[in-house]
Amino acid sequence: MKRLVALSLLATAGALSAAGNATAATCSLNAQGVNFGGYDFLSDQNLDGVGYVTVTCDASSSYTIALSAGTTGSYVGRVMQSGSNRLRYNLYVDASHTMVWGDGSVGTETVGGTGTDTNYPVYGSIPAGQNPVVGDYSDVITVTLTF
User: Fold this and answer.
1) Whole-angstrom distance, CA of residue 60 vs CA of residue 116
2) Residue ranges of the domains in the chain?
3) Where is 49: in which H helix or E strand?
4) pLDDT above 80 (res 73)
5) Quick one: fold of 2-15+27-146?
6) pLDDT in tens, 104-126
7) Are 147 and 63 in contact (CB under 8 A)?
8) What is d(CA 138, CA 147) in angstroms, rounded to the nearest whole number?
9) With bands split at pLDDT 50, 70 and 90, how would you rate the model's confidence at 72?
């Protein structure tokens, strides 16, 4: 039996340019959530998925992208919910799932860049061996762009 799980990324813009900069860049971001599809609790393999954060600036500008811990989790282990039922997962900067994408605190990483139009993958993974109740699981992650 499989469970449908999806992750929404809610995008927000962060700090404006430094004081005294007469020509401030304008940046925006767009986020596509990680859709994991169906989770097979009998599988011994983690369920992985990829979402994207796209940053668009009108001038080459330095920026940092941070992700929140989610509505019910922490950076150590984010949690999706379906009602009161929970499913553990996490989001990573790298495809090998070694660096948790967060806000730079408690061992997490942020992603920095410079440019006018750049696409960043968000790697997600749900650990195998969980036995959640059938349902639609989700979490909301806030994406913060600081430039």
Assistant:
1) 5
2) 2-15+27-146
3) strand 47-67
4) no
5) Immunoglobulin-like (2.60.40)
6) 999 999 999 988 889 999 999 99
7) yes
8) 29
9) confident
